[in-house]
UniProtKB/TrEMBL annotation:
GO terms for biological process: carbohydrate metabolic process. It comes from the Bacteria. This is IPT/TIG domain-containing protein. Residues 60-129 form the IPT/TIG domain. Residues 25-46 are annotated as: Disordered. InterPro entries: Amidase_6 (IPR024301), Ig-like_fold (IPR013783), IPT_dom (IPR002909). Residues 141-279 form the Putative amidase domain. PANTHER family: EXPORTED PROTEIN, EXPORTED PROTEIN-RELATED.
Length: 297
């Protein structure tokens, strides 16, 4: 008979005793539970900064443009494109800033235009307003030129198209609007009925500029066209005979594929953004051009 308290097993000479002790009952009321394990809190991710663009109350500049616009905020690197009055601009964009040079007013007119900031999908993230103002003599010149390149100011200056062309008369008008004062050599009175040759005739005007350099103008050869700025003067010799026969005003200077592109405003042919290179290669192959830089003050 095997006892429930102990089991004795004899193997050969050596006795091996296996003792089975009866189990002690466990009092659940007096036992000590193991310490509770606190759950590890989940790491909380930092929230992404919200997009915010801070725009000054007075944002604006001259019709010719060129002013640096610097804006600040947060998450601004979401912006991919910036347009001013519908014109895309090259902007330097970081998480906290956007900086760009204001473009010219496309039609050289004063007033506010929309500035749009968009992401890669084209969605508008923010808008602002840029106020173009007439603040410089060049602004005055270009505002006048774009108002009257097609709509002739006959009441004040007449037209000389019936007698050979109005290109010089128009350029003189823009320079007068810029602030040039009439002289004994360059004038037009009584609604364009009393005028000097230099006011209406390109060869005389060109000769006057070369000999007297009025208002600080500087002759610039064609090879230095990169020096031109808006409001400067372009003189042509289409017939390659040494006598100038056409004149216009620079309306835009742009860098396209590393090359300087010159646009012009004027009469005969009436135009606002006539291309200089096309004029000399397509319209008048073999023609010549030279320039006069007009100081901004």
């Amino acid at each position: 008979m095997i006892s429930t308290a102990a089991l004795v097993l004899t193997v050969g000479v050596v006795g091996v005793v296996l003792a089975l002790q009866p189990s002690e009952p466990v009092d659940a009321a007096t036992s000590t539970p193991p310490p509770a394990v606190e759950p590890t809190p989940a790491e909380t991710a930092e929230p992404e900064p919200a997009f915010e663009l801070i725009v000054p109350d007075a944002l604006g500049g001259s019709l010719v443009g060129g002013e640096t616009v610097a804006l600040s905020g947060t998450a601004l690197d979401e912006v991919v494109t910036v347009t001013v009055g519908g014109q895309a601009v090259d902007a330097t964009i970081t998480e906290g800033s956007i900086e760009f040079a204001a473009p010219r007013s496309e039609r050289y007119t004063a007033g506010p235009v929309d500035v749009t900031f968009a992401d890669a999908s084209g969605q508008t993230l923010a808008t602002a307003s840029y106020d173009y103002r007439v603040t410089t003599p060049v602004d005055q010149q270009m505002e006048y030129a774009f108002k009257h390149w097609q709509d002739y100011n006959l009441a004040d200056w007449n037209t000389f198209n019936p007698s050979g062309g109005d290109c010089m008369n128009f350029v003189s008008q823009t320079l007068f609007a810029r602030g040039w004062q009439m002289t004994d050599n360059w004038f037009s009175y009584n609604g364009g009925t009393d005028f000097s040759s230099a006011w209406v005739y390109v060869p005389t005007f060109d000769s006057w500029l070369r000999s007297e350099a009025p208002n600080g103008v500087e002759y610039i050869p064609y090879e230095q066209r990169d020096r031109l700025t808006v409001g400067d003067i372009v003189v042509f010799d289409f017939n390659y005979n040494g006598t100038p026969d056409h004149i216009q005003i620079v309306s835009a200077v742009e860098i396209v594929d590393g090359q300087t592109t010159i646009k012009m405003v004027g009469h005969n042919r009436d135009s606002d953004y006539r291309d200089l290179d096309e004029t000399l290669t397509v319209d008048h192959p073999g023609g010549l051009a030279w320039f006069y830089s007009v100081p901004s003050v």
